[in-house]
Design goal:
single chain
Length: 138
Amino acid sequence: MLMSPVIAWLAVIFWLGVIWFFGRAGFGRANTQRLIDLLKHYRRRWGFLDKHHGKFRAAFHYIEFGACYAALYAAVSGGFAWHYGKGAAVWGATCGLAYLDELHQKRSGGRCFRRVDLLHSVLGASLIMLFIFLREFF
């Protein structure tokens, strides 16, 4: 299925903006913990969010860069049919964007470059790449 190139590239630009927005200082661990702490009077919800805060943050890296890979792949290939060269090139570009995101976070106050976050981002892109690849066979 072919996708409109304009729509696909607009999705890429939009998603890169989302990644940049969430990479700012306002979304550091301490600030998201402050948001969770606003729910202290809802004991069960607060307890769950407080306990799993780190897991939610890690999952967001998978979502961020998995969606980034999907949008970029759709823009480059015109859809989701697998192309080996394009799939590898987009994966490399997405990994580079994940690295740039960590550098951006390092330069934002209250954030730092974490290799484990980079790993989560790369794995998110890798899982979506694998999913698109396996769609050709199943």
